Amino acid sequence: MYAVNLEPHTPVKKGSVFEFPFDVDEHYVSEMKDRALVLDEDPLRCQSLPHMEAAGWDTLELIMESKAAAYPEHFSLSKDGDKWRWINRPMGIDDTFIFGNTSTLPYGPMEYITRQAQGDFAVLDQRDGNLWMDAGIVTTQADWSLDFDIGMNFFEWHAPVPLAHELGIFKRALKFLLNVQHGKPARRLNWTMTINPRLDTSPENYHKWGKDRLTVTPENVGEKVYLRVELQTFWRLPRSNGLLFPIRCYLISMEELSSIPKWGCRLHRVLGSLPQELRDYKGLTSYIDDTVAWLSKFDQGQETSPGTFPD
Amino acid sequence: MDNSHLAGNDDYIEGEERFSQIPCSTLEPMDGTCHIILAQGEGALAVLDLAKKTSSDFWQKTHLAYVPDNIEPNRTSQLQDLNPRWFYEWPTLDAALPHVREIFANSKQGSRLYVTGTHSFIGIIFQQAHNAGIDPYEALAERRGPKTRRIQCVHCKGFMDNVATQPVTCSHCGVLLLVRGHYSRRLAAYQGVCINAEDTSEIPETKELFS
Ligand code: HEM
Prior knowledge:
heterodimer, A: alpha+beta, 7-stranded antiparallel sheet, 3-stranded antiparallel sheet, 12 helices, globular, B: alpha/beta, Rossmann fold, 5-stranded parallel sheet, 5-stranded mixed sheet, 6 helices, 12 strands, binds protoporphyrin IX containing FE
């Protein structure tokens, strides 16, 4: 069941996805190529309403500074007044531009930097005691459309989520987000499932990937069915007072997941007790029973250790 | 897959607070320096009901626009009898839009907006009001007439108006669409998404859900 699962985004455990503010992993270059392909096909996946330019520069600064500090062997940033030089070695980029001057970049500032950052990004404007999804780049999403949701507020874009509104979750979550302070980011995890390691499970292309769900059989669950975990972080942006919301997606097959016995056991219990509304909402209905049956061999009623890390 | 929970219901927009992207209720007189009333089709009746609750000086500072949209009976003379300071009649929404934009562009602070008619009509007028920077809290809407929906196909991005059935075939790309309850004020449309993507040979029964 849903909860207001929010905590400070502070480093945890060397080598984990929580080690650095923005995790860069071995899929970096291929995910950036995938993003470029999706954008070529559908430019509406990246949009920014006119008043979001300042938040775009905030985003660029935050990501460049974080990555250059966390991964100096891959990224460097040097500043000479407003003249910035950004080097991204894995992608072969070496650009000099004037900070704050969009005509010195090949794209708008948000698009420029998020074409070089794994995960989707929503950039929220904060006004009238609410958050407004006024910019974003969304190419690896769990079945929601930026083009449809852009301009909506926190309650509007969350409208399709079942049960959580009634539990008061979104009211409490919004209150928390409105108070996120600069320099004190927060995070939460969200999950769903995907057939095959496909990043772009967009509604735009649902009529192309939806049929994959019927390819699951009791025999192929291990390789076909993936757990999709989103690491969502929340960053106050200093100049615009906007909020940056990166959604980093990690996919793991049932085969690989169950190589950690604790994970196989836990997922069996979570899926087995998932309310029908959430099965439908997450799109699991046609293959969840096969998946629960497949996972049952990892659950002998044993106790599991606290936390998410392997034993 | 059972998608019925995504389809929403008639109350989706008009009832529950959380979904009330366009809060439809009943037209009531508001305090304001100027009133802009836009009525389409059967919305004329909502204006006549409103008039039962207004004082006569209300109409001295009122723009009343009627968009009959070929809906019988025509209520022009009844509306004129309310003696609004300004009365307009525009045959259809398309014909009305340039005039509406002009009225919104010239509207002053303290103006109040009243919109009534089909949900599509209300949605489009609110979209125009938003573009003109009119605060939605200074507006009221009342739906009258059929509950048909304006939708956007999420796949090809084409719009369809007056959708009465669930599912509906996209008139642009041909995909069979589930009309969701998810509504965008910016687009003035509900979202249409493929209803049988898992198995396109499965054709759900078509029902008149929004009439
Ligand atoms: C401002 C940052 C946030 C953005 C931009 C955002 C965006 C979204 C979007 C677009 C969806 C998909 C809705 C759909 O089906 O169309 C979603 C789902 C959801 N969101 Fe958020 N969200 C944010 C913050 C939060 C927070 C803080 C919570 C805390 C409880 C939360 C809880 C959820 C839940 C429970 C779902 C359903 C996910 C599932 O079951 O797969 N969101 N969010």
